[in-house]
């Protein structure tokens, strides 16, 4: 991994016509394991056209999801996922929403890095270091992709 926490990534923007509204996304299949918290955090399988567009950018097979965060997330490491994840923020969830990384999962006391993500820009995210999302005041909507292997993704060579 060439970055410790977060990097801006030069992947192509997602065309607006491929992004569903929040209402349309809520009609999709919520794949998040903890259904008790589905209104705080949810992950939805994308529609066919978005899934095909995203997969076409890479040779390696990817997993893609819509992610909706409606309130602050506790400090965590992503469950059953390793490596790097890529987010394309559609709506930030508020004016001062931060992703923070911490020194410890059980007793997080020290913030070791924090960022405020900009909308309509890809970034990579280290999900193996304890992190959270805070200051959420409205739904934070993003498209999330990762390789099945957990390895960093490389765009197809279109030559």
Task: Outline the structure in words.
- The chain has 159 residues and is mainly β.
- It is built from two helices and ten strands; from the N terminus they run βαβαββββββββ.
- It starts with 5 loop residues before the first strand and ends in a 12-residue tail after the last strand.
Task: Supply the key terms.
34% strand, Jelly Rolls, four-stranded antiparallel sheet, 159 residues, mainly beta, six-stranded antiparallel sheet, 8% helix
Task: Write a concise synopsis of the structure shown.
With 159 residues, this protein is mainly beta. It has two helices and ten strands, in the order βαβαββββββββ. The model has no long low-confidence stretch (mean pLDDT 90).
Mean pLDDT: 90
Give a short account of the largest sheet. Answer: 6 strands, antiparallel
Strands of the widest sheet, in order across it, are 1-8-5-10-3-2
Q: What fold name goes in the CATH topology slot? A: Jelly Rolls
Note poorly predicted spans. none
CATH homologous superfamily identity = Jelly Rolls
Q: Which CATH first-tier class would you pick?
A: Mainly Beta
SS-based class: mainly beta
The total of helices stands at 2
Q: Helicity level, as a percent range?
A: under 10%
Please state roughly what percent of the residues sit in beta strands, choosing from under 5%, 5-15%, 15-25%, 25-35%, 35-45% or over 45%: 25-35%
- Tell me the span between the first and last alpha carbons: 26 Å
């Amino acid at each position: 991994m060439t970055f410790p926490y977060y990097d801006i990534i030069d992947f192509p923007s997602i065309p607006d016509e491929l992004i569903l509204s929040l209402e349309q996304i809520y009609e999709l299949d919520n794949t998040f394991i903890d259904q008790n918290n589905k209104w705080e955090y949810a992950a939805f399988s994308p529609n066919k056209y978005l899934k095909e567009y995203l997969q076409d950018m890479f040779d390696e097979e990817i997993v893609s999801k819509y992610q909706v965060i409606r309130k602050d997330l506790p400090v965590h490491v992503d469950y059953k996922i390793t490596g790097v994840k890529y987010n394309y923020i559609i709506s930030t969830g508020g004016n001062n929403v931060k992703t923070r990384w911490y020194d410890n999962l059980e007793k997080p006391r020290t913030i070791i890095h924090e960022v405020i993500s900009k909308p309509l820009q890809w970034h990579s995210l280290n999900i193996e270091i304890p992190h959270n999302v805070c200051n959420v005041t409205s739904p934070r909507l993003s498209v999330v992709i990762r390789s099945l292997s957990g390895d960093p993704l490389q765009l197809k060579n279109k030559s």
